[in-house]
UniProtKB/TrEMBL annotation:
<dbReference type="InterPro" id="IPR007815">
    <property type="entry name" value="Emycin_Estase"/>
</dbReference>
<dbReference type="Pfam" id="PF05139">
    <property type="entry name" value="Erythro_esteras"/>
</dbReference>
<dbReference type="InterPro" id="IPR014622">
    <property type="entry name" value="UCP036794_erythomycin"/>
</dbReference>
<dbReference type="InterPro" id="IPR052036">
    <property type="entry name" value="Hydrolase/PRTase-associated"/>
</dbReference>
<dbReference type="GO" id="GO:0046677">
    <property type="term" value="P:response to antibiotic"/>
</dbReference>
<protein>
    <submittedName>
        <fullName>Erythromycin esterase-like protein</fullName>
    </submittedName>
</protein>
């Protein structure tokens, strides 16, 4: 290891990480290389506490269902419900099973308990109501949006009309539709009508924003807009599930991250006067360069939510990628980035990518991990990362 490489790394602390970021940062994306490894959400919790206590952050958002997250936020903000209920119902993708997520909600609630509303921490999800096996019914999002508008405006559609068009929720959530477009209802005549209605309802929400905000509150309007984005995004995603062309899966991953980016954009705008936001998700959803993966024997490429939001925020967006060295018998080769970082003396390191690149005197090869769920960092893309967090062993 050269002195330049040693000098590029510091023991992991929140202060060491934020020292590498632009002071203009409004959204910090902290990526993890795989899901289900407790070391990364624990590291996230440690960073978030530092950001709250020393950097003025007042919100965090996770790669989790944006509507389910409202349950978790109600608990951490106002003490509504219990920690058990907020944990079990406030996360999607099986993330409720991770102790670090329960601990995050517990700490946020304790922090908020003695503080006025404007100083309290907020919890968000920025993913859609999507799971690996499919997508949710649009009914909850559509009806919540409809009810908000109907309380103040004369609408051309009744709740009964929406219910008839949606039909049984099981039609929308059928897991067989993920692999078989013929099983999807996303392009039926009813679904097409619902997409037009969702678009019209969202336009009404925007057009009457001054009146609706005055009649309710900015928070109520923001939540209505969240349901409007979600309804439109779900209907768009279901239409993608009904696509019969070879590019179907590529379309779905693009639609998902576009929905994520819109949610991140809305969160940053809502939090603008309160402070920056920490976003936590897989590296592939937050990185600036093009993401890629194999799914159903197809190579997929798409622009991540981080790449999309970076085009809107510029230097107000920062990305810190995490990766690791050894995982049991899976030890990185010396000619990989992870192999090189494994020679660092620290159990957890914060690495300056620019200084690291200056100290590398040979071409590194991308790591091929034993676990297909782990995405290694591409050495050729480190110039698009603001900070690397390296965990030597997990």
């Amino acid at each position: 290891m050269t002195a330049l490489i040693r000098d590029a790394a510091r023991p992991y602390t929140g202060e060491a990480l934020t020292a590498l970021l632009s002071p203009a940062t409004r959204l910090l994306g902290l990526g993890e290389p795989t899901h289900g490894v407790e070391a990364f959400p624990e590291l996230r919790n440690e960073l978030f506490r530092h950001l709250v206590e020393h950097e003025g952050y007042r919100s965090i958002t996770l790669e989790s269902d944006c509507l389910s997250a409202l349950i978790a936020d109600a608990y951490v903000n106002d003490g509504i419900g219990t920690l058990d209920d907020a944990t079990s119902r406030g996360f999607s993708h099986g993330f409720s099973a991770m102790p670090a997520n329960r601990e995050l909600l517990r700490w946020m609630r304790a922090y908020n308990e003695q503080r006025p509303p404007h100083e309290r921490l907020r919890f968000y999800g920025f993913d859609g109501p999507l799971e690996t096996a499919g997508a949710a019914s649009p009914r909850p999002a559509l009806t919540a949006l409809h009810d908000h508008l109907a309380a103040h405006l004369d609408l051309a559609w009744s709740r009964e009309t929406l219910d008839e068009l949606v039909g049984p929720d099981e039609r929308w959530t059928n897991p067989a539709a993920m692999m078989d477009p013929a099983r999807s209802v996303g392009r039926t005549p009813e679904a097409k009508k619902l997409r037009l209605i969702a678009d019209d309802l969202r336009t009404l929400l925007a057009a009457h924003a001054p009146h609706l905000t005055a009649a309710t509150s900015p928070d109520d309007w923001w939540h209505a807009d969240l349901h409007a984005r979600t309804a439109a995004g779900l209907l768009r995603y279901h239409a993608g599930m009904a696509d019969t062309t070879p590019t179907r899966f590529g379309t779905l991953v693009c639609l998902r991250d576009a929905m994520m980016a819109d949610n991140l954009d809305a969160i940053v705008r809502r939090e603008a006067r309160r402070g920056p936001t920490l976003a936590f998700a897989h590296n592939a959803h937050l990185q600036r360069h093009r993401s890629q993966m194999q799914f159903a024997d197809q190579p997929l490429q798409w622009w991540s939510a981080g790449a999309i939001i970076a085009t809107r925020l510029g230097d107000q967006y920062a990305f810190a990628a995490t990766t690791f060295g050894s995982r049991g018998s899976d030890v990185p080769r010396p000619d990989t980035l992870e192999g090189l970082l494994s020679t660092l003396p620290h159990a957890r390191s914060v690495v300056d990518p620019g200084r690291l690149a200056a100290g590398i005197d040979r071409k590194l090869t991308p790591r091929v991990p034993a676990d297909h769920t782990y995405f290694a960092l591409d050495p050729a893309t480190t110039d698009q990362i603001d900070a690397i967090v390296f965990v030597k062993d997990i």
